[in-house]
Each structure stands twice: as C-alpha cells, then as structure tokens.
Write a structure and sequence with these properties.
By secondary structure, the protein is of the alpha+beta class. The strands form three sheets. Strands 1-6-7-5 form a four-stranded antiparallel beta sheet. Strands 2-3-4-8 form a four-stranded antiparallel beta sheet, covered by helices on one side. Strands 9-10 form a two-stranded antiparallel sheet. α1 crosses α7 and α6 packs across α7. The protein is elongated and about 60 Å long. The chain starts with a helix and ends in a 6-residue tail after the last strand. The structure holds a DNA duplex.
DNA sequence: CACGACTCCTGCTGGC
DNA sequence: TGCCAGCAGGAGTCGT
C-alpha cells in the first residue's frame, strides 16, 4: 500500500519501539515473497540489537548487530504489505509471512499479494546501499538534491509522458501511482505531457508540488502514528485531501471540469483536463 | 539508452 | 447467488 509517505509514517512508528531493542527470534512462514526470505535470518538475527530504523525510497532499513554479526534487514511492503506490533501470543493469520520476535511483543509482516521483500545485506550500515535493490535507487524527493536544475536535466532526454517518468524509482524514489497523479494536478501539468517538453519554470512548480504533497501526506499520517503502531496498520494512510485520484467522472474541485481517467504504462492515471496542460 | 509490455500474487468489485 | 473479468497504492526483467 505504501508510497514514500506511508513508508515514512511506518518508519516513524517503528523507530521508537525497535531502536535499542533486541531481537529474540525470527519466524519465516512463507519463504517466497518477491524474493526468497533468506533462511539464514533465523541464525543471524536472534541476539541482535537494532540501532537504527532508516528509510531509502520505499524500503525500510533496520541496522542490526551483535558480536560476530552486523548487517541490515531490508524490508519492502510491496503493494499490500503491512507491519504491525502484535502480542507475543497472538496466533498468525493468513498471509502473515514473517515475524520479528521482540522481548515483549512481535513485529508481524503481512502481505496478501506477496510483492513485498525481506532481505539481508551484511556489513556496516553504510553497506546497505550496496544491495542490488538499493544500489539503483534514484534520489530522495525530500532531500536537498531534488531541485529544479536536477529534474530538468534528468528529464531532458526523456520523451515519454511525465507521469510514468515520475514513478521511475531509478530516477526519483518514492512517488507511486497516487502521489504522481496528485502532484501533477497540484502543479497544473498534464500527465500526458512529454517529460522533455516541460519548461524549467513549470518543473519548479512540480518540484514544489511533489515536496508539498509528500510532506502533507506524512504530516497527515504522522498524526496517527500511535494508532498505527498498535492497531491495524491502516490508520494514517492516504489521508490527504485528494484532488483527482479515484475521482473519474466527478467535477474538479478547482475548475469544475470532469476529471478524466486514462491508462499509462498499465496504471490508472487521473487528471483534470481543465487545469492540467 | 529509453520505453512499453509482461510478470509475480491474492482479493475485491461490478456486471451478467 | 455464483462466476468471471478487470483492477488494485510496486518494480524487476525482457524485447524493441
């Protein structure tokens, strides 16, 4: 379910509980998600302390170590993944694929569609980026590196429509199907417009829109982290005011034109033909 | 290189 | 009510 804001909200919910805590055990129930969950986690992780819970794109990074073992547990929630703390004695349910057993509770990973990932990268925290899944990740949209100059140059040779380009995690990480549509709506740019046919001035609007949209979503989700941590894990997700996503056929809240839905690269795109050009 | 199609998987919704 | 097609917030791989 997660795009960058949801993963960040998840990280903020996990960090205060996990950081400094010790892993007592590991349970692997479904060996194969998008990749096989490494069986050796059962030997590596018990006894490890988690120093930091980080995020890179839509990946969660748990830095773990104990004498003789140092590495990073890398978790991706895929489309339908979900992490929640449950009581130690709660029986696992359907699609509960992976448990991190802590002293007084369990961090449980549930993922019906199994597009998620749980893998291990040995080495110090800075080595995590060497993992093949992380090595090709693009820049963070909430970092100082994400500028008008950067995106204008990066997209200068991309002739395809801007919306799928925004969703390319090898370019910019974290922007999924919903926030791509919403950011373009806020910037007044058509999702169909070729990425290399957008002016620098309009890219400035887009950079701001992306930053603002993601930040708003994090703020909205962050307000319910307490709920997230000990409830169903769904609280706090996608709570921003939606401009166009899922509103096909309804009037645009800004100009009243009918919101359109089209298909791009196999994904639904929503936009307002009245105020996006 | 850049792009689109295809792929992995389960579950829900809407039409008949 | 049952069945089936289509679609769902991701992203790697492959062919062009």
């Amino acid at each position: 379910m997660p795009e960058l804001p949801e993963v960040e909200v998840c990280r903020r919910g996990l960090a205060p509980v996990l950081e400094g805590g010790q892993i007592e055990g590991v349970v692997i129930r479904a060996p194969k998600l998008r990749q096989v969950i490494p069986p050796e986690l059962a030997n590596l992780l018990p006894g490890c302390r988690i120093s930091t819970v980080r995020r890179r794109g839509k990946y969660l990074l748990l830095d773990c170590r104990r004498p003789g073992v140092e590495g990073c547990l890398i978790i991706h929630l895929g489309m339908s993944g979900n992490l929640r703390f449950v009581p130690s004695d709660l029986a696992p349910g359907k699609h509960d694929h992976f448990d991190l057993v802590l002293a007084d509770q369990v961090l449980r990973f549930n993922d019906p569609r199994r597009f998620g990932v749980v893998v291990w990268q040995a080495g110090p925290p800075e080595a995590a980026e060497l993992h093949p899944l992380l090595a090709t990740q693009g820049i963070e949209p909430l970092s100082d590196n994400f500028t008008v100059d950067w995106i204008f140059a990066a997209n200068s040779r991309r002739s395809g429509p801007i919306k799928p380009v925004l969703m390319d995690s090898h370019s910019v990480v974290g922007i999924g199907n919903i926030y791509a549509s919403e950011s373009l709506f806020r910037a007044g740019i058509s999702p169909l417009r070729a990425a290399n046919r957008i002016s620098r001035a309009r890219y400035a609007l887009l950079v701001d829109a992306i930053r603002q949209t993601l930040s708003d979503a994090i703020a909205a989700g962050g307000s319910s982290i307490r709920d997230y941590v000990h409830s169903d894990g769904g609280a706090g997700w996608f709570q921003i005011q939606v401009g166009v996503y899922g509103r096909a056929g309804e009037p645009c809240l800004r100009c009243g034109a009918v919101v359109k839905q089209v298909r791009q690269a196999g994904r639904s795109t929503f936009y307002c033909p009245g105020c996006q050009h």
